[in-house]
Amino acid sequence: MRRFISKVKAFKKRFKRVPDVEPNMVIFNEVQTMTTEDNPSEEEEQQTTELRDLQDTVQSPVDPDLAEGFNTLAMSLRDQYQRSGNLQDLEAALENGEAAVAHTAEGHPDLPERLQNLAAFFSDRYERSDNLQDLEAALENTQAAVVHTPEGHPDLPMYLQNLAASFNLPGRLQNLAVSLMDQYRRSGNLQDLEATLENDQAAVAHTPEGHPYFPQLLQNLVASFSERYQRSGNLQDLEAALENAQAAVAHTPEGHPDLPGQLQRLAAFFSERYQRLGDLQDLDAALENGKAAVAHTPEGHPALPGWLQNLAASFSERYRRSGNLQDLEAALENAQAAVARTPEGHPDLPRQLQRLAMFFSERYQRLGNLQDLDAAVENAQAAVAHTPKGHPDLPGQLQSLAASFRNRYQRSGNLQDLEAALENAQAAVAHTPEGHLDFPEQLQNLAVSFSDRYRRLGNLQDLEAALGNAQAAVVHTPERHPDFPARLQTLALSFSDQYRRSGNLQDLEVALENAQAAVVHTPEGHPDLPMYLQNLAVSFSDRYQRSGNLQDLEAALENAQAAVAHTPEGHPDLPKQLQRLAASFSERYQRSGNQQDLERALKNGKAAVAHTREGHPDLPGRLHILAVSFRDRYQRSGNLQDLEAALENAQAAVVHTPEGHPDLPMYLQNLAVSFRDQYRRSGNLQDLERALKNGKAAVALTPQDHPDLPGQLQNLAVSFGDQYQRSGNLQDLEAALENAQAAVALTPEGHPDLLGRLHILASSFRDRYQRSGNLQDLEAALENAQAAVEHTPERHPDLPGRLQNLGASFRDRYQRSGDLQDLEAALENVQAAVAHTPEGHPDLPEWLQSLAASFGDQYQRSGNLQDLDNAFYNYGASFKNTSLNPVRSWEAALLWASLAKSHKSRRILEAYSAAFHLLPDILWIGTSIYVRQDTNRRINIAQATSDAISACIDLGNLSLAIEFLEQGLGTSFQQLLQLKTNVDILPQDYAAQLQALSVALYSGTTENPQKVAAQRNALLITIRQLPGLKNFLLPRQYTDLRHASEQGPIIILNSHPDHCDAIILLNPTSNPLHIRLDVSVTNLKAQKSVLQDLLQNIRSRESQISRIKARREGLELGLEGLLAWIWTSIVKPIYTALEVNTIISGRLWWGPTGYFAALPLHAADAKDQFTHSYTSTLVSLIEARSRKLSDQLAVGLVGVTHTGPGRYQELPGVQQEIMNITSLVRDKYHLQSLIGEQATVDVVKAQLNNCAYIHLACHGTQDLVDPPKSCLHLYGGNLELETILQMPLPNAEFIFLAACQTAKGDPELVNESFHLGGGFIAAGFQGAIATMWSMCDEDGPIVAETVYSHLFESSGRPRASDAAKALQLAVRKLRDAGVPYERWVPFIHLGI
After folding, report:
1. How confident is the model at residue 1191, as a pLDDT?
2. How confident is the model at residue 44 (pLDDT cuts 50, 70, 90)?
3. Domain segments of the chain: what residues?
4. Model pTM?
5. If both were cysteines, with which of 14, 468, 989, 1291 could 1190 make a disulfide (CB 3.0 to 4.6 Å apart)?
């Protein structure tokens, strides 16, 4: 046996230079390797035989040195275990170690060594199993080793070092120290740790510097200082650990097997100090030493996976500091290499998997790749699965798994992930004994999980659990511990949540106190400092929202700026810090109205989004903040592009948020607010419906008892209030009130948002009072409005709105009671609202209008002219800024006009100017024609225009009357014409942009017309800054409009209850002429009724869509009488005025408004003294005359002889009609003819785009309920007016609509009505022939032949302006033939 042992020792000597590999391990491995080699050398066969003999010998019970053999084999097996992680190797080592001790006699000099080895085996198994019996056995054997070692033994220094873990004595005290250290880690008993440190220091002190064990003794001293630092957080302990670790490296020669381990430990302590102090040099030193440790460790070495893992951790730390993606990739690469080199079953595998999960999670946070998130969860689950129950690492693995589930929950909103996170966090705490070093961290993470569930479900028990665990985490963490700031931060967030729930100011103060403490305990340069500064900024912001104290707002901004300043470019947290900074600037803007703050908010909000990758879980939140900033700027500037950007970002935030995500209701609410803003600007009911839809969804997705629910209900109440104001539906009003009451009821007393909810509730009660007249509702409105004002701090940004609301309620009560005190209170509160609102604030116009109304009331009461002047002054001041609710401002302008009229003030014209200036915004081109026509009816633009014209006439300002007419009755018409305006006068790039945007709008090819309209509006503003283009596409002034009369006089007819008038534009050089007509609105209504009754006789016997086939009895006398009245009352006085001005013949255009528009004015001229035309607007004439004509002329004929199976009746006269025209045209111009089944919708549309002259002989229907649905009936389908308006029609010049009802409009819309004839003019035709009611089928060929004979009689190019004369000739031919009135009267000419 001695022979084999000596050979073993010789074998050890051969391998002593192998780094960090014990010779025993090599021996054992050599046995395994040489056994399996295919072609071993003779020397290798001899070595293998000797090792097998060694194994065989130790199994023989007869050798006297059996104990030494057992011991040697046990050590080899232990080395194999440390290499493979195979538990069977450890069990075999333990079994042979016990046998070695059992076969060693008491007093034998090797007994202490074998007891020490046995203790090491038990210690290994304890680390694997966490079985306390193993730890006690390790301690028992170590103590026995110490007892059996005589005083003065030469190994004293090493034993002292070993005893450092457990009351060391020389020699065997080393393993006792290790065992006691394990016991300390298990029990947390500080006395064990202090004894360890004391004996470690003694061991080093008793060992000369050159001793071979000296570096190891230093390293163990390092470990003890590190443990005490982890316990106390005392920086001196960390410095001592680092100092001794550096000394250990310095005393370890290059190539020594222990050098990689020393370098690795040194790297760890540099990393620890970096985490404490934030000094980047420490982090770089950690990486440098970690890389060196890996470089000095050969492939296959059992320690290499651990070194790789630690190197990965250092790269991760630097990534968190710098944000450099390469560092994160390096961390992940090294962590994956560590896992790949760790065999299945190895005790370190769970820890490696845990770290790998963490790095995947970090990359997910940076790149937003869902695969990384799933990989994080997968590896964290594997780490837990590979960790046995009771193992000391299990709590950490559970915590890591909880974090991965929490990350996935934040991405997906899946409640199961949240529950899994909470379950694992609770298990982590449950498996960690109180007093354990990791216990506070587990409590902190559990608090975070409870907070997440509270924010999702709003359950108060979760909030209390979060707060309790966060407080316990702080209590269990020493003040100087490096993680103390993080625990304070978590506690601050929990108190913030409680404050937002309860409104208790003490909770806010405690949150702020802890957030400040977190910052104070964090050194400059620490990687977590920006996050703590950001959280502190939020707390200051919360207190500002509560108190209105400007110092808190400035502190919030200062800390947000500091957070950004401490975050390097490219760092993954930079977008988050920029987002917070944007919110702080936005808050200061709300307070100060400083435009620079608003621009900074936008700049930082945009940067936050730009730095956030698509798919990143935080992207929706950043889009949300950006949307709010754009909305703020829109409310300041009224710029529609800002409104569109707000809406676009709010929609994107919702789209990027998965169903079930806790923030989805907040994003839906924000989207609802943006849609509501757009509704208030455009009047588009669809926007209001979308606002309600999203508001309802936000409420539905918010759990009962959730702290955000009252805010969602408040928002929904406002939307229902808007819908009530639009619809007048009492159910909407009740819904608004119900939601506002619920919002208040769910908000605790003292909550900062309670006052805003009382304000909304007051508005809802006020609305119901105005509907019902119930005095109790008015008193409730006053009570809630007063409560809102009384508790709002001075200089709070919401104070002006609450003062205004209170003033409005007092005014309501004054109008009910006549009590002068109420009027004075109304004035006092509204004046205060104005005084508290900075110049340029978007709400200032509304406050000024309300103040003006109250001064008007006071003037009515006092008769004091100063009150009247104040009313006029405030009305005027209110229109200096862009209105965000143009309809409301329109109503205020009309109230101003009414006040001015009642006191015969010339400022009435100023009031109407303000009103009509709003029309392009009210009838916004970004909305559909349906919306614009509905708005036209709803706010009664026709009546306002009539009132304005009448006021101008009374004051002798006829030129302004013409401008008002053009703006009031032609806005939508002009907008359509402007979409096809000539852009040749513009620079090429601007022309191209404007044309592209205009085409997108009129063609209906854009999915977002509001956005395109906003872009077009912004482009027009830019164009108007160019030289000579100041007024490009702005409403025309009279100096331009008068040129419409170049070809003949234009007669504008205005009907008004006070008087009916005609304004005549004689020519461009003469002043307009006014004629007071001897008719009244009552007369006009009566004549309109007469005409309707006469036409009803036709409709009662024949379908509305037919062309008349025969003479109708009973109409002659009625129509003759109507025309006689029109001649006497309207036409004759005008002709007389024209004759006075030497105009006795030629062209004449009618521009009727109101009830005049229903009358056949042209037919009253029995002698055909003038050639009559109609025009919807003056601009349309000017634009048509200046339009560039196409080079080639094509004529298109459409004859719908029948409309297809199952549709309307046939038109037998159409065939002849088309033949007549063909015979006139085919030899002169290119002709495209569509007859019968050829005349489908698509083919006719193509012909309309290709041809300059179009003849449409077909059925037609005017839809008075939905005018854009008015249509021409073609073969197999209808060509609707809406479609016509969307067509480019580049060659359009003249169209003959030989169909019924093509010039029958909606009398309520007057000139804004889009009958089919007017629609073709708006679409781009210069002129059109249409009919006011059904035409006779047999008249079609006659009229068509006469018209086209005149148009095409010359060899030159026909002129659209000749069509009016051509129609006059055709109608005269019918009259000469004796046809009845109803057959020739309906034909009219439109355009030039």
Report:
1. 80
2. very low
3. 1-29+46-101, 116-237, 702-783, 982-1032, 1187-1391
4. 0.70
5. 1291
